[in-house]
Amino acid sequence: MEASCFSEASTDFISNHEERDHMVGQVLVNGFLQGGFYACIGVSFSIVFGIMKVINLAQGTQIILGAYVTYTVSQILRIDPFFTLPLAVIGLFILGYLIQKYIINLVAKGGLVITSLLTFGLNLTLINVALLIWKADFRGTNPWYMGMSLEIAGVTIPYVRLIIFVIALLFTIFLELFFRKTETGNSIQATALNPKAAQLMGIDIGKTYCLTFAISSALGGAMGTLFILAKPISPFTGGDFLIILFSVAILGGLGSIPGALVAGIVLGMVESFSVMFFGIEYQKIALNLVYLLILIFLPKGLMGKRFYG
Amino acid sequence: MKKGKVCVWSSWGVILICGLVLVISSELVSAQEAKIQIGAAVSMTGRLAKEGNLVKKGYETWAEWINGRGGINVGGKPHKVEMIYYDDKADPTTSAKLTEKLITEDKVSLILGPYSSGIAAATSAIGEKYGFVTIAPVANGDFVYERGFKYLFSVLSMATGDLVPVAELAVKQIPKPKTFAVVVLDHVFTLPSLEGVKKRSLELGLEEIYYGKFPVNTSDFSGILTTIKSKDPDLLYFGGFFPDAVSFYRQAKELNVNAKLYTTTGTAGHPDWLSVMKKDGDYVLAQVTWHPDMTYKGPFFTSVSYNEFWKKRHGEDSSFFSACGFVAGILMQVAIDKAGSLDQSKIRDALRGMDIETFFGGFKFDEKGKNIAHRMGIVQVQAGKQVLIDPPRPGVKLLYPAPSWKER
Amino acid sequence: MVNLGRKGWLLIGGGLCIFLFLAPFVLRGYWIRLLTNMFMFAVLAESVNIIAGYCGYLALGNMFFFGLGAYTVAVLMTKFSFSFFSALLIAGLGASLFSVIVGLPVLRLKGQYFLMGTVGLLELLREITTNISLTGGGQGITLPIFPGGAAAANHFFYHFMFGLMLISIACTFYISKSRLGYAFRAIKFDEDAASVMGINPTPYKTAAWAISAFFTSLAGAGYAYWMSYIDPGEVYQIMPSVKMYLMMVLGGAGTVLGPIAGAFFIEFISELVWGKFLELHLLILGLVLVFVVIFTPKGFIDLFQRGLTPSKLLSGIKANRI
Going by C-beta distance under 8 Å and a sequence separation of 6 or more, which residues neighbour residue B279? Predict the structure, then answer.
């Protein structure tokens, strides 16, 4: 239920001071909510980068594919798009596993150029497949709760954004627990630390990589589902994520999930506040500058060390 | 190093063989037939797909209609028309390359323009290079026509005048508005119209309390909307393409940002606005290049009879985008008739000297190709219908102030 | 194969050059455009070869020099009425200067960070260009049309790109035989070891990037004038950047003619696909990328050298697979 504290008609009586506070509050909340999403997609990119040293340039498109799964299934079955989340996760998990097993694993030791070119080639292929199936038009969903929002202390929180934030957070926490507490998760970490030693301990590197990539892909798929709840997509939307993925991964420290969480929220805030201070036209510039500054001055991330270092 | 030379030799050999194959295969292409081929690169997919497809429908319907009458009259002989379409995916570079392909490879006799100013800017450069007339059906960003091109003609009057009637209407309302906010896409199509209405608003004594220019591909307006909400403007002027307007007004509802009057550049006059936005699309104003309720008369149709013809053919009212496409075809046909040939420079001269009225409105081109005889209309979406409120008609009123989102 | 000796090869090379030089007078517009495009990509591939193939610094975002060159010429010619050639010179030298300045912090980054840094620069420059009015913002810039009509323009740009390609080949050839090339290769192999051996990497890396920037931006400058209309999304695109890498890898990184051959081959395929299978353009390019990288990681010239047999194809995989 919406709790309306102020109706719009009474804004005439609000002083400048309160106006500004509300705006700052709103900007803060916008940034925070968006940050949760950024953190989660950043995690999906970061684990592949940290564990396999592969820059997955197709990650953005994998996210979008999850969104397309959601779009198509919710259209065909006429259900709320949110409930297609498990399908997107499973679908992208399988896709990721197959890609790693039959394609990426063939060149995983080949070095940076080789793997980057490979993932870029995959990206192009996936984009074109999406183009063939769904054309270049923008596709969106219209959940019944679209446009509805919560009002707390003068700050408007759209339901959709809140859902996205909560789910992204849950996934992130879940993944961290997976890596820390389960045997599979631990073996993945071990592989990242020292592949040769891990092999000696009986861990199958190939399978581990497949699992890692599959998890990253599945996570991306889930985030895609969430993304399309709020915004329309086209096959090319994946490219917009690239800088965010890079930034969160590096700022958070490669492979560190708590780091990525913090980094994501920081980036969300930067984006939100940059609109307030500089205007929307400089938002992307601000993000890019921040990214470059992070690369140059903080390559090891906020924490200053790798999580398993 | 022998091995090194082998590689060089093989690679050049590969190149030469490929080259020869290409040359031989292309010489086998058959000669052109004797009818008129007209090429058009339009946005069939991409961010401008909705509008682009409507323009394409206008072209198609015109081609069908003119062929039904025997074809275009070239020096006394009727020539049937064959249209060739390519999808430019709403990308200017692609459109330019496709236009060049149409001219140099497909060897079309005529070109019909793409949708939107940004794309027309790119393709008209190609047309100018090859001396081909480009009639731009829906491209009225002033900048496009300030480059000294001689072969470019605009169906529409320039964008700076588009939304001016909105400001003039608004100041006559009660309670009288005092402030306005401008949110505009940084693009040659939208900037001039928003600049125009901003200037007029300032002239009329309104105060500008926000001006935001957002880059292409922006989907998140929460930052802008939050700022606007805190400033509480009376009038909200928005300029952007279809996906932008949809995102913006949806998010405005989400964040509960209210104003007394809302506008878009053209989008709310678009047929899909009603089906996509449903009730949330009410009260928004937009300029329209043409409307079935207008009262123009041309050599083949009046505004009303054109719409009747379209309704019979397609089962629905003609959108103004299609009307632009259709009339562009008519212009081409009339110019060729006057010129008596398919020679591009003669067609150009015929267009330059034209001064006619059609179902769409008047046509008279200045030396830059701008149509100075055309006037935009304004519609407001009222209870799910796009009602023409300017030019003013008896019994039709502007609904003002708009109720807040929560009250609807 | 026939051993023609040095003189023989020079004669063939020279003959090809003369043929290509005279080609525009006998070929149709479509071919001229195709070849001009091939030459341009050859220049781009060769430039990236200098910083990445020889020096080992994988500047995936190298395309931003292209955009810089394009916009420098566009702005100088439209807003300040420069002539093409003076604008061209400024574009080239300006880009090199930019690479030196930006290289100060960025060339210090290693491996994947450098790669990601150049991608970030590409994005940043595109966003900046989209948002300042000097460059016309998102609306793009229209350059003055080349005087003399379409045919003259086609010839001009053909020879422009052809000449640029020859110069870049000559430059790379010179580098490969000189101390510069020796230093580059040392840096690529092991930068720390190189500095121990008395080669200070910094001026050499910087020189490599500056040379690469110079040619890339000249290609961009020519492109802008050729197309007459550019916008930020087009000249600051990551796709051609990756294509350059593909061409370099396919032809053989670190060789003089490898990237050129790679460029011709890829552009040829690209054009064929664009013409006949427009809808599958990205797919085919993507698949070519994937296959090249899996089966010919050292380039197809290397493959020709070692003999084109199925087992040799698979050896690429054997070396790199998990």
Answer: B384, B408
Chain C: touching chains (3 or more CB pairs < 8 Å): A, B
Cβ–Cβ below 8 Å for B47 and A231 = no
Domain boundary assignment for chain C = 28-238
Shortest CA gap B170–chain C (Å): 30
Looking at the partner chain, which of B2, B87, B215 has a beta carbon nearest the beta carbon of C138?
Answer: B215
Q: What is the pLDDT of residue C99?
A: 94
Phi-psi region of A145 (alpha: psi -120 to 50; beta: other; left: phi over 0): alpha
Closest to A220 in 3D by CA, of A59, A75, A81: A59
Q: Of B167, B166, B125, B117, which Cα lies nearest the Cα of B147?
A: B125
Contacts of B229 in chain A (CB under 8 A): 23, 26, 156
Which of A108, A209, A299 is nearest residue C320 as measured by Cβ atoms? A108
Q: Which of A127, A129, A285 sits opposite C124 (nearest CB)?
A: A285
Interface test with B, best of A7, A8, A19 (most B CBs within 10 A): A8
- Domains of chain A, by residue range, sit at 21-297
- Give the pLDDT confidence of B105-147 residue by residue, as tens digits: 889 999 999 999 889 988 998 898 889 999 999 998 888 898 8
Phi and psi, residue A156, nearest 5°: -95, 125
CB proximity A163 to C under 8 Å: no
> Where do runs of H (alpha helix) occur along C82-200?
84-106, 111-131, 149-177, 179-189, 191-196
**Domain covering B36-158+294-364, topology:** Rossmann fold (3.40.50)
The HSE-up count of residue C1 (CA atoms within 13 Å, CB side) is: 18
Question: CA of A194 to nearest chain C CA: how many angstroms apart?
Answer: 14
Which residues pair with residue B239 across a beta bridge?
B184
Best residue in C66, C142, C146 to probe B by mutation, most B CBs within 10 Å? Answer: C142
Report chain C residues whose CB lies below 8 A from the CB of A114.
249, 293, 297, 320
Q: Where are the domains of chain B?
A: 36-158+294-364, 161-292+377-407
The neighbour count for residue A12, using CB atoms within 10 Å, is: 7
Ranges of chain B whose pLDDT falls below 70: 1-34
DSSP helix/strand/coil, C309 = coil
Asked if A7 lies within 8 A of B404 by C-beta distance, the reply is yes
d(C-alpha B391, C-alpha B381), whole Å = 15
Q: Which fold has domain B161-292+377-407?
A: Rossmann fold (3.40.50)
The residue assigned the tokens 């509802």 is B253
The runs of H, that is alpha helices, within C199-321 are: 201-227, 232-235, 238-251, 258-276, 281-295, 300-306, 310-320
Phi, psi of A103 (to 5 degrees): -125, -60
Report residue B132 as tokens.
Answer: 């081909």
Position A85 scores a pLDDT of 94
Which class is A21-297 in CATH?
Answer: mainly alpha
A183 touches chain B (CB under 8 A): no
Rounded Cα distance between A148 and A142, Å, is: 12
What digits encode the pLDDT tens for the residues A152-166?
A: 888 888 888 999 999
- For residue A256, give the nearest of A296, A308, A182, A214 by alpha carbon: A308
Evaluated on CA atoms A261, A301, B218, A283, the torsion sign reads positive
How far is CA C126 from each of CA C121, C122, C155, C231, rounded to the nearest angstrom? 8, 6, 30, 9
From the list C31, C145, C229, the residue facing B96 with the nearest CB is: C229
Selecting from C33, C138, C301 the residue whose C-beta is nearest the C-beta of B187 gives C138
Is-above-0.80 flag for pTM?
yes
- Pick out chain A residues at pLDDT < 50: 1-15, 306-309
